[in-house]
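TL;DR need structure tokens for one chain.
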Amino acid sequence: MQILRNREIWMRNTQVMNDFLEVDHGISCVQRALATEAGRSFQSLANTFYPNAFAEAHSQFEAWIPGLRGDTFLTCVSEHPATDDQHGRLSMWRAYGGNAGVALVLNPAVFFRPSNALAAYSMPVIYASEEGLVAELAQVTQRLLASPEVVGGLGYAGFKNTLFEMLRFGAVCTKHPAFSEEREWRVISSPALKTSPLLVHATETIGNVPQVVLKLPLKDKADEGLFGIEPKDFIERILIGPCEHPYVLRRALWAALEEAGVSDPGPRLTVTGIPLRANQR
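>> reply
TL;DR here they are.
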């Protein structure tokens, strides 16, 4: 309801994730993968393009590790395959549905459209251990060998920055393989590296913990390549999950969608009718 009423999504610090050790897992996987034969091969290839570029990027990454924990903000979403279109995904309802949960089914186009307007960037999660990242590095090496002209067009500074971002996003978006069913994507922002006047810093109390959040406005900025993010375009459907009063909730969401500029909200609202008993706490 707050997303619809305020037309914004909050991004929260990595330290308040469900399992803040996820970031430590990603950092460890990146560091170990770089120490393998595949990692050394990748570094050697990078140096053939621009000597010292990888060393500088790696040094910057190591220096930024505290920032991965303290100055990185995320919003997490889950892929929505056609098989989940009617009822959602039971594991997600159990984990995140609460007593009156809904799933916002989003138009994914905005996640793929290049834009620097928000200084926030989307990335799919890699469900991997060290061995999985080793395989990823080997693939990147082969792609660079096949298309060296891509690197040539970046220049030294651009290539070094690309290497740094590869390591940074690799650390933030690597998750234990046991969670692969989630099919998670993350929207990531690090204000100390790059900020946007569109992202609003605010202090909110969530779960009795006062914390800084970044408020991402659901408002188009077409001149900077950001469009399709306003609720009328961004929210394709809302699935109403297991709850005691689904039709009361549907009516409230109908009104909220209308206030957010969505005409004829009815077809966008689906009551799943899942007979799942909410946890009693």
